[in-house]
């Protein structure tokens, strides 16, 4: 079974440009999460999808960030226009819906390293 | 509020035990986790503990939870070079859905 995959693995863009990150969750996982780690700091929650619906987007930094999950499968995270402080590693995770911690274990992708110059 | 803190670095000799510490502030934590991140890889769940437990052992890993002090630790026995990685503690809180609040991560370096 394939794990969570993220594209691209690295991206270097200029300030003001647009970048779109993609996450393919594990098949059958209805929960999908985006997290971000800015250099040397904690990993911060951005948002949570249940299927195609945004369950919690309280961690989205501002309206330059737009996440979508059309059809409840893969998700994209667009940053437009990118600023220097958006640099960091963006992680995606997915999990099943379920009552217990084992059912809802989150599996993480390898992350996308975004550098805004 | 939610705030999870860890020391940034730990260096140990191969064969010694490693202890990675974490403190959190939210008393409504339900589960606490330890994740490992190797270079170029994603986050791998190592182990977790329910908030009503004091200790959990899983092979070389021992998790201790002091709920009164809001302190979590991960002990790795007989540390190997393959244990070199960044270790993140994380909490899941009541009413917070399934989102996790992570610490800054502790870089563990294992020396020969």
Name the features:
heterodimer; A: 117 residues; mainly beta; 7-stranded mixed beta sheet; 4-stranded antiparallel beta sheet; B: 112 residues; 6-stranded mixed beta sheet; 5-stranded antiparallel beta sheet; 58% strand
Largest sheet of chain B: 6 strands, mixed
Please provide the ordered H/E string of secondary-structure elements of chain A.
EEEEEEEEEEE
Mean pLDDT of chain A: 92
β-strand percent of chain B reads over 45%
Percentage beta strand of chain A? over 45%
What summary fits the major beta sheet of chain A? 7 strands, mixed
Characterization of the model:
The complex is a heterodimer of chains A (117) and B (112). Chain A is mainly beta and 117 residues long. Helix content of chain A is 0%, strand content 48%. Chain A has no helices and eleven strands. In chain A, a hairpin with a 5-residue loop joins strand 4 and strand 5 (43-50). Chain B is mainly beta. Chain B has strands spanning 4-6, 9-13, 18-24, 29-37, 43-50, 55-58, 61-66, 71-76, 85-93, 101-102, 106-111. Chain B is globular, with a radius of gyration of 13 Å. Classes of the chains: A mainly beta (117), B mainly beta (112). The A-B interface holds A 3-4, 31, 33, 35, 37, 40-45, 48, 55-56, 59, 91, 93, 95, 101, 104-111 and B 4, 8, 31, 35, 40-45, 48, 50, 88, 90, 97-105.
Give a brief rundown of this model.
By secondary structure, chain A is an all-beta fold. Chain A has no helices and eleven strands. In chain A, strands 2, 4, 5, 6, 9, 10 and 11 form a seven-stranded mixed β-sheet that branches. A four-stranded antiparallel β-sheet of chain A has the order 1-3-8-7, with no helix packed on it.
